[in-house]
Every structure is written in structure tokens, then in C-alpha cells.
């Protein structure tokens, strides 16, 4: 049996599943100031249901959470200083990392990992003094091409830790080995700035599960639909940044026929999340997750979020109805402080939640300012809500057309596409999706259990494994980024050799984790750099990233596949 938990900004959803069958489901309000209370309210009834099933046991729990997203969106990340070693090339001042305490050090490593010039000790000393005076106890140290040679990062980090007691340091080469210096800087920065809060959350969840005697493994959903063991997620919490949209995408995959091309529309209380599934495969963002308008090295589904949901605050300004990009609490019909789209749905008998009289009262309040009857007001509210979501879908299709996977799909299908299928999930979907489909001229599908599809997507997410290899054929060693392994290298001299070696090693590690043998590993990316001395190639630097594909579990006779 499987448990999926999705801690959203408005509701926490939970499901207990036996294969693809939903045994029990829960939906409770999220207490953002105390996420554990929300988890307990959703989880405990499921655990009781597990105990009632005498001949089965809990295999695993998968959690998706908005914790990291909310920390970044609300600017509640820990204060972190940034020390960068940019070397020659683009002016680092062109990049605004929005960190007041940013320090630039001289020194340079070239793309082959050679030291061009060393670090100035006086600069490090001055930098350390300023950081200590600021009182900041977290520092991200990132050098250009540090994934080729981490000497400078280690030197700076070591000096800072020796001279500032209690300082926590993260180095760029530890977080990601991919090229693109600005993205590596921002990914390292966000990792460190969110690590402490996530570690606290992790410790509380582990304690909670221990108190309830739960021995089943716990995983957390990543932005690309893959999973991390909960203990591993503490090292790279930023990987979970968009686990909510990833859960909704996987939920749509699980609840709709295979191989379909669909736009996933997850209408929540605060936002409406969008994702694209091409012929049964979720579209990945080619440039990595974009967080606060800045690109990172976090692998993620191509998703978008519109600031409109069932609990969006409604106001009348200068005689015009406005849907505000925030919520002030629950809908008015559920005891909230102001009218919302949910009240409009309730007033029109499109949903059954809340008190009808209060919903009508909310529409009367708005209608008085608009000079309209309550029913007319409710229809106007839904019309405006639908228009806002449709505009976001159209804007995202323009953006998605730039994604390589989308272009390849277009060439293979020999056609250009706009939404043909809308798959609605979330509690507000039954009311709004038919209106969206009518507005866009496409089919509107609302699968069974759509109200907890995010939790279903989390429950059914495959346990996957990703490994990133760094090979140096000249120095004859290789390392694995995710587990810190560094060993002597034999039998690898070309890119093809490195890819084959990496795929074989991945399968070996997957076997240890119990990943089914029939799972075919995939190549995420590979890069090769020739090291030339005296017009001769003396060695190669090769980076290879491989993983077992993300997706949802398939159940067949005899077990899971």
C-alpha cells in the first residue's frame, strides 16, 4: 500500500492507495504556520485505514510540499552571503543575484581546469572580515569552472570556516557540476539559503513518523517528477521547489488514458498551475527551473502558475470587478473575510462546499458596488476567472513553443498544436473546467478523484535515481556528484566509453535500491572537453548525467513495474 501527501498553499491532500485503487482520501486546510499539524490531520486517518487492512502493509510514503516555494516567494530564506570567483569574461555586475552581501574575488580557472592565476590572500582576509562584521553565518562560494577544478572554492571555504567560528559554507561544485556559471551561482545560493528551514522540517517529520511507529521509507517529490529519499533531500532542498506542480502533472498522467496530449489545469485555492503532456510525456523545461525570474540548474517540468484560484480575493475598483493576485483566507461561504470565486461557484450551485446563504451574501456585497444582481455578479466573477486562466494558457503555449521537446514533437507529429484536451484537477475543477473548455473550444476532462490528484501523483511517482559523473582521463580518476565517490579510472577514453560506464554503474546502484531490472536508464546529458597541449590532445574532461526515468508506477500481475 502507498501513501501520497501533497501539502499545498491552501489544502493538504492525502491518499492511501492499493495499486491504482484509492482506499481512502483526505483533504484538510493547510496551516502554513504549522505544516506538521496539516500533515497529522491528513495522515492519521490513513494510518488508521492501513491498520484495518490486516493482510497488507505500508510500502512507502511520498510527500510533495510547497515549503521551499513559499520560503522563496515570501522572502523568508536565511540570510546568505555570496562569494564569487568569476575570472575573466562577462562582467559579473551584469547579473543581479539580489544578495546585498556579495563579494568578488580575483583568481581564475579555465575551462580545462587549469589555474590561470591564484587567489589573492588579502582579498580573502578582507572578505572574511566583512562577512564576520555582518553577522551572516551562511556563505555560498562559487567559482567559474569549479566543476573542472575546485581548488579555489576549497581554499576560500576553508579560510572562511577557520576564521569565522560556526560558519556554514556551500561550494558550487558540490551542488551542481553543469556548465553555466550564473545558474550554478543561483542554484548554490538557494540551496544554502533554504537548507536550515528544510532540515528543521525534515527532523520534525521524521520524529512524527517514529512516534507513530512507521518504518516505511519516506520520499519527497522533485520538480522533474522524480523522487529523493527524504534524508537526501536535506542536502539539495531546492530540488523540491516545484514538487506541487510535478505532483499534479503525475496525477493527471495516472488518471487519464495513456499517450494523450493534454494541458493539465490544477485549480487550487491560491493559484492555478499549468503543465503540458505531449503524447503521454510531461514537457521538461530545457533551461532548468526558473525561480523568481532567474534560471537554475534544477531539472523541472515546464510549468506555469497563474495567480488566480478558488480563494482569490475579489474587489471592485472604480466600478470594475478585480481578481486580486492573493487570498485573504477561505471563501466567504466558509467563514472567510471577503468574496471569492468559490462563493460565485456556490451561489450558482456549481459546488456544494460552504453555506449557500453566505455565498449569495458575498455576491450581494460585490453586486451592490457593480449595480448587478447576485446571480449576474456570480456569472461575471466566473467569466473573469476563466478569462484570466485562458490568457495564462495562451501565454504559456507561446513560451512552450521554444522548448526543444515541443519542437521535436511538432516535427514528429507534423502539426502545430494548441490545447485540444484540458485535464482538470483540484477541488474547483468540476465547476470551472467546462467553462474553460467552452472558452477554448477543446475537450474538458475531469477524472475521478480529481480533487486529490496531486496526492495520487505523489503516491504513484516512481522511485528514481540520478547520478552525475565527472571523468578526467588525463589524471585518470572519476567522481560521482551525488554520493561523493571518487575512484581511479580504467577503460574510459571517449565520450561513448564514459556514457556506457555511467549507465552500467547506474544500473548497479539501482539494483541495490530495488529499482526493477526492466527499468531502462536514460542519458540526461553528456559533455566532452579536449585538453590540448602543444597541439596534441593530452586528455579529456567528460561530464555525464544518467538516471532512471521519472513517471508513474505501472501495476501488473506479480508486482510493480
Write the layout of secondary structure elements.
Elements: E1 2-7, E2 11-18, E3 21-29, H1 35-52, E4 60-65, H2 67-73, E5 81-85, E6 102-104, E7 108-109, E8 115-117, H3 121-134, E9 138-143, H4 151-163, E10 168-171, H5 172-175, H6 181-211, E11 218-221, E12 227-229, H7 230-233, H8 243-255, E13 262-267, E14 272-278, E15 281-282, E16 290-291, E17 294-295, E18 303-306, E19 314-317, E20 320-323, H9 341-347, H10 356-370, H11 374-400, H12 404-413, E21 421-425, H13 429-440, E22 443-445, H14 453-460, E23 466-472, E24 477-480, E25 486-488, H15 495-513, E26 522-533, E27 536-547, E28 555-556, E29 559-560
Parallel strand pairs: 1-4, 4-11, 5-6, 5-9, 9-10, 13-21, 21-22
Antiparallel strand pairs: 1-2, 2-3, 7-8, 11-12, 13-14, 14-15, 14-18, 16-17, 19-20, 23-24, 23-27, 24-25, 26-27, 28-29
Helix pairs in contact: 8-14, 9-10, 9-11, 10-11, 11-13
Overall description:
This protein is of the alpha/beta class. Among the domains are: 81-198, Rossmann fold (3-Layer(aba) Sandwich); 306-451, no CATH class; 466-560, no CATH class. The chain contains 15 helices and 29 strands. The strands form 8 sheets. It has a 6-stranded mixed beta sheet, sandwiched between helices. Helix 8 packs across helix 14 (453-460). The two termini are 15 Å apart.
Amino acid at each position: 500500500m502507498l501513501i501520497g501527501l501533497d501539502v499545498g498553499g491552501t489544502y493538504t491532500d492525502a491518499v492511501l492507495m492499493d495499486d491504482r485503487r484509492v482506499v481512502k482520501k483526505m483533504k484538510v486546510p493547510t496551516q502554513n504556520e504549522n505544516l506538521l499539524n496539516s500533515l497529522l490531520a491528513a495522515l492519521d486517518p490513513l494510518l488508521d485505514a492501513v491498520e484495518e487492512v490486516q493482510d497488507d502493509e505500508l510500502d512507502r510514503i511520498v510527500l510533495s510540499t510547497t515549503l521551499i516555494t513559499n520560503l522563496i516567494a515570501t522572502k523568508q530564506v536565511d540570510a546568505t552571503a555570496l562569494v564569487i570567483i568569476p575570472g575573466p569574461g562577462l562582467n559579473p555586475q551584469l547579473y543581479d543575484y539580489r544578495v546585498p552581501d556579495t563579494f568578488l574575488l580575483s583568481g581564475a580557472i579555465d575551462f580545462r581546469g587549469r589555474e590561470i592565476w591564484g587567489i589573492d590572500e588579502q582579498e580573502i582576509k578582507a572578505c572574511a572580515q566583512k562577512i564576520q562584521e555582518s553577522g551572516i553565518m551562511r556563505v555560498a562560494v562559487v567559482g567559474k569552472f569549479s566543476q573542472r577544478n575546485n581548488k579555489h572554492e576549497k581554499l576560500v571555504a576553508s579560510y572562511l570556516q577557520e576564521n569565522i567560528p560556526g560558519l556554514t559554507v556551500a561550494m558550487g561544485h558540490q551542488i551542481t557540476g553543469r556548465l553555466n556559471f550564473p545558474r550554478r551561482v543561483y542554484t548554490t545560493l538557494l540551496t544554502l539559503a533554504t537548507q536550515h528551514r528544510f532540515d528543521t522540517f525534515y527532523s520534525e517529520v521524521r520524529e512524527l513518523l517514529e512516534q507513530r511507529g512507521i518504518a516505511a521509507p519516506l520520499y519527497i517529490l522533485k520538480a522533474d517528477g522524480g523522487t529523493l529519499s527524504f534524508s537526501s533531500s536535506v542536502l539539495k532542498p531546492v530540488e523540491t521547489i516545484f514538487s506541487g506542480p510535478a505532483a499534479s502533472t503525475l496525477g493527471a498522467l495516472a488518471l487519464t488514458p495513456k499517450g494523450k496530449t493534454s494541458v493539465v489545469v490544477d485549480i487550487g485555492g491560491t493559484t492555478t498551475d499549468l503543465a503540458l503532456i505531449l503524447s503521454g510525456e510531461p514537457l521538461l523545461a530545457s533551461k532548468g527551473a526558473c525561480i523568481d525570474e532567474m534560471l537554475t540548474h534544477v531539472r523541472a517540468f515546464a510549468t506555469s502558475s497563474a495567480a488566480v484560484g478558488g480563494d482569490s480575493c475579489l474587489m471592485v475598483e472604480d466600478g470594475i470587478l478585480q481578481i486580486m493576485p492573493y487570498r485573504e483566507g477561505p471563501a466567504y461561504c466558509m467563514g472567510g473575510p471577503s468574496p471569492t470565486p468559490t462563493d460565485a461557484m456556490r451561489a450558482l450551485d456549481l459546488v456544494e462546499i460552504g453555506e449557500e446563504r453566505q455565498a449569495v451574501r458575498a455576491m450581494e456585497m460585490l453586486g451592490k458596488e457593480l449595480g448587478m444582481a447576485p446571480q449576474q455578479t456570480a456569472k461575471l466573477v466566473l467569466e473573469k476567472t476563466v478569462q484570466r486562466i485562458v490568457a495564462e494558457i495562451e501565454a504559456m503555449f507561446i513560451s512552450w513553443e521554444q522548448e526543444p521537446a515541443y519542437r521535436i514533437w511538432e516535427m514528429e507529429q507534423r502539426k502545430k498544436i494548441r490545447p485540444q484536451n484540458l485535464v482538470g484537477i483540484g477541488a474547483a475543477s468540476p465547476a470551472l473546467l467546462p467553462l474553460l473548455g467552452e472558452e477554448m473550444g477543446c475537450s474538458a476532462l475531469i477524472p475521478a478523484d480529481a480533487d486529490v490528484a496531486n496526492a495520487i501523483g505523489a503516491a504513484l511517482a516512481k522511485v528514481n535515481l540520478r547520478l552525475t559523473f565527472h571523468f578526467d582521463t588525463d589524471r585518470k580518476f572519476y567522481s560521482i556528484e551525488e554520493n561523493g565517490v571518487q575512484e581511479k579510472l580504467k577503460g574510459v577514453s571517449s565520450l561513448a566509453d564514459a556514457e556506457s560506464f555511467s549507465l552500467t554503474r547506474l544500473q548497479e546502484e539501482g539494483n541495490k535500491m530495488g529499482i526493477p531490472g526492466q527499468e531502462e536508464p536514460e542519458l540526461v546529458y553528456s559533455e566532452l572537453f579536449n585538453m590540448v597541449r602543444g597541439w596534441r590532445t593530452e586528455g579529456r574532461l567528460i561530464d555525464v548525467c544518467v538516471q532512471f526515468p521519472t513517471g508513474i508506477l505501472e501495476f501488473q500481475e506479480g508486482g510493480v513495474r
